Amino acid sequence: MRLFLAILICKLSRAAIRLLGRGGTSLPGKLALRIHPHIIKVLSKGIDTVLITGTNGKTTTARMTEKMLNDAGKDCFANRSGANLEQGIAIEYIANANAFGRAKKKYAVIECDEAAFKKVCPETCPKAVLVTNIFRDQLDRFGEISETINSIKEGLKNSPHTVLCLNADCSLTSSLAIDRQGKTVFYGINEGGDSLPCVSDANHCIRCGAVYNYEYRTFAHLGSFSCPDCGYKRQSPDISVSKIEYLGRDSSEIIIKEGKNEFKAEIALPALYNIYNALAAMSAAYALGISAENAAKSLSGIKSSFGRMESFIIGESRIKMILVKNPAGCDRAIEYMSGSTEKFDAVICLNDAPSDGTDISWIWDCDFEGLFENESCSKIIVSGTRARDMRLRLKYAGGDESRMTIIDDDAELIKAVLALRNQVYIMPTYSAMLKLRGSLAELGGKKEYWK
Ligand SMILES: [Zn+2]
Questions:
Q1: Helix 117-124 and helix 86-95: axis angle, to 10°?
Q2: 209 C-alpha to center of ligand 1: Å?
Q3: pTM greater than 0.70
Q4: CB-based burial of residue 248 (10 Å sphere; 0-12 exposed, 13-18 middle, 19+ buried)?
Q5: 229 CA → ligand 1 middle, Å
Q6: CATH number, residue 332
Q7: Does residue 191 form part of some domain?
């Protein structure tokens, strides 16, 4: 009876909220959990769930995994809106159930917040858990890196049958396999750049504290690491990229190795971190019985997720939106922008709502200097509740004040963006992204993300 009531209340309140033209709220999930605190556990029974967590790349990896499963005939549902706390996840399991709790689809691809993981993982009894990477994130929400790792470990404790899919190149992530029984699928990239030490979140061995040696790095602390003292080192990956043949502005071509089998794949998204996302998704699909070669075929048809390298063409304006949340992700966005050979204008929207992280000190750890290394960046518009902090950061990074404008008003901001004639890159934090994306989607005739 409680189950029936929880499902009903959730479905009704969700329908009512949508009728009012609003989306993205987790209230129906909150109500359902209040009536039946273990509703996820009950409804996920019999469903093969892939649970995806990690600092960066969760949403894109989830979209890739979802496509691989669907293309392989494994019909799945997902928390596509990116609502990745317990309430948002509950809504998706309820939406997949009829009024009596019977499931419509047999597979689920669920993105889960790192801090919520310890609670959500035991509830969903996942078939596979995928951890994309661990970087320093919003300190006010996640605390130090060790807290994130402990939260994930805690969640995994009672899931010995879950296949763990881990980034072999991330010393923090792959440490989750230490002393763990059960199957692990490692993925990684077998080539990289210089081995010089750089600013990173993990220079020291997670087991003994010695400084790692690197054979090569791909970016930040990712690469072929080994500890000279205790012997902890990168695991040989089960699925790997043996060669990056082409890394372009919109796509990449890679050679993938799985056991003795090597094959080529095309990823219809730019940047090295999306190669990691593709490998991560392939590992999750592999854990569900899809060969890496078949999974890789889905990558050429992948589209960017909302706000993540998403393009908008509105009249003469060419806009690309790149969500930023933490230094590692922000540095990749800056790298992508400054790698442009044509002139571009940048829009940075820094908010400090709880979903963005109220502590914005992370902007001082980002390499905004990279924006001013060449002459490609023409104008910069700064907006958001912490626009003034952002402008100060840019000034220290070498930004010339005559090129920077602050715009506080949302409508004025959209007007100014549409008046820019170069390629425009918008870097918003999460809450700014939702708002801006809504306006641009409407102007560009796209759907709201939750529809
Ligand atoms: Zn060590």
A1: 20
A2: 6
A3: yes
A4: exposed
A5: 5
A6: 3.90.190.20
A7: yes
